[in-house]
Amino acid sequence: METELKDITNLKNNNKSQSEEEGKEKDNQPLLQKSEGDSTEISYTEKDIQELEKKFAAYVRNDVYGTMGLGEISLKEKILLGLAMITLLPIRLIVTVAILTFYYFVCRLCTLFSVPNREEGEDGQEDYAHLIGWRRNVIVAFGRFCSRAILFTNGFYWINETRRAVEKSPNEDQSKEPSEESERPGAIISNHVSYLDILYHMSSSFPSFVAKRSVAKLPLVGLISKCLGCVYVQRESKSAEFKGVAGVVTDRIVEAHQNEHAPLMLLFPEGTTTNGDFLLPFKTGAFIAKAPVLPVILRYPYQRFSPAWDTISGVRHIVLLLCQFVNHIEVIRLPVYHPSEQEKEDPRLYADNVRKLLATEGKLTLTDIGLPEKRVYHAALNGFLRQR
Predict the structure, then answer these.
(1) Disulfide-capable partner of 306 in 28, 63, 105, 224 (CB 3.0 to 4.6 Å)?
(2) How many CB atoms lie within 10 A of CB 105?
């Protein structure tokens, strides 16, 4: 992660443009990992971190557990956390695993004697999105139920959903009434705050989504993801493979729009998670298909622990989440967004307009930073914490 560390040094000299440019070169590296042969050590100060927090505010944690969940907490919070770890944590873990195991066997039963869709090549992706009839109905029904059960088990007892109408865009043809077929979107477009986003959408719409290739090999979750019809991608893949995945996603969106039996695609155009108060620039992949999309806004109100997965490790996030007795989700579902002819011809315009709509309706702050800047911030935080 040598480039990111150089970015921090440049920040001290107020050379912001160079740091952003160098950070983008590392877009395909995993978060929180060093590059091979990287032995750079840089001294960090509180002032450096404060400067970064101002610049990268979309990734700053503001809950009682502080930066990366490692901040100093009060005695009262320590007592509450200790009690939760010996009561709530084990119960919730056991019940969650039991629900996952139960749903795994449901998927196993429904896929018996069924041949999965498989792409050409030794490492071709496979899924069971093509299943129809009772098999598909059982997978979807139990999938939605089990997803909601997992959320309930982990403290999301109520989900506050709001369906909001918005005014038609001035460039939308007022004389055309959308047909029943065209009312069906091809994809769900959502802001990205946490891995919990996927559980909510599974409980609501049961869509397929883009996941890391390694997910397909995970115990229990692997088969479930194949039944969802996930499209797998390797972060470190060459650009040619990413283009291939983009083509698969586009085809899935078109199919979902035209075929009511096909699962919708769930897409997070930001490409990474934030603290929930900001909206990053959208990638255009979700909008190339020219199909209508369903905008959905997710928020996680909190008092103690923020469910946002921004600058905190996965294990620590899960432990603290399960130790919080009540968690909250607020959802704003907007009407299906039909692109204008101009938006169909310009995916960037389409993406920007949907992004502005989500920001306006969700009261989210637009920011120009993205995944490269998140890597810079993570690298600085890790370096700072190692020195303390």
Answers:
(1) 63
(2) 11
